Amino acid sequence: MQDVRKIDMAVQQLQDALEAYFKQRYHSALVLAAASEQLFAGYMNLHKMEPAYSSIRRAVVKIANDLKSRSGAAFEPTTEKDIGGLLNRAYNHSHHAGKTDLEVRMNPKFEAQEAIDRAISNFDSLLLTYDLPEVAGAQRFIEESLAESRFDADVEELLGPVVCSLEA
After folding, report:
1. Radius of gyration of the chain, Cα coordinates, nearest whole angstrom
2. In this structure, what DSSP letter does residue 52 have?
3. Fewer CB in a 10 Å sphere around the end CB: N or C, the chain?
4. Nearest in space to 121 (alpha carbons), one of 9, 13, 37, 47
5. Of 45, 23, 46, 37, which Cα lies nearest the Cα of 108?
6. Is 33 exposed, middle or buried (CB count within 10 Å of its CB: 0-12, 13-18, 19+)?
7. Of 88, 85, 97, 94, residue with least CA distance to 27
8. 45 CB-near residues (< 8 Å, 6+ apart)
9. Are 98 and 142 in contact, with CB atoms under 8 Å apart?
């Protein structure tokens, strides 16, 4: 037996997630990247750094509640738990199975991209504190993500059913 640092496990999971992503194995990429992201987050918390997931969750809660308050109508505030559930929904449903929960409605590529992006963000934040190896594929992922205009298509895919039901 040997002791293995979890940060080294996280680096390997991120590398494997990127490899899976580039092979269009998005489900594997999602689970590996999310696991990596969470391990990196543990190290960030040790050093009083805010992990990407927490930062995004906090920002979305603020935006959601600001938009609701501008409507002038009474509303129930959106909580960090609400948004956390949405951010992790695809990942959580991808590594748990029940007797009736046998399918997941998601955009696998988008979910993998989001998890990888957060894992890379956490990894980058830890570079100042830990001597970490270069992650093969990270730069390629960032460059391709920036070059790919996915926002419009993703919004249309996610909100299309909602808009259609409102128009009906």
Report:
1. 18
2. H
3. N
4. 37
5. 23
6. buried
7. 94
8. 51
9. no
Backbone angles phi, psi at 93, to 5 degrees: -80, -15
Contact 161, 168 (CB under 8 A): no
Do residues 122 and 44 touch, judged by C-beta distance below 8 A? yes
Distance CA 62, CA 68 (A): 10
How much of the chain exceeds pLDDT 70, in percent? 88
144, 116 in Cβ contact below 8 A? no
Phi, psi values for residue 134, rounded to 5°: -65, 140
Phi and psi torsions of 8, nearest 5°? -70, -35
Asked if pLDDT for residue 117 goes beyond 60, the answer is yes
Which one-letter DSSP state was computed for residue 76?
Answer: P
DSSP-derived secondary structure letter, 51: P
Tokens linked to 32: 């590996």
Show the DSSP H helices in 1-150 as ranges. Answer: 6-22, 26-46, 52-70, 80-94, 108-126, 138-147
Contact call for residues 9 and 3 (beta carbons, < 8 A): no
Q: Is 12 helix (H, G, I), strand (E, B) or coil?
A: helix
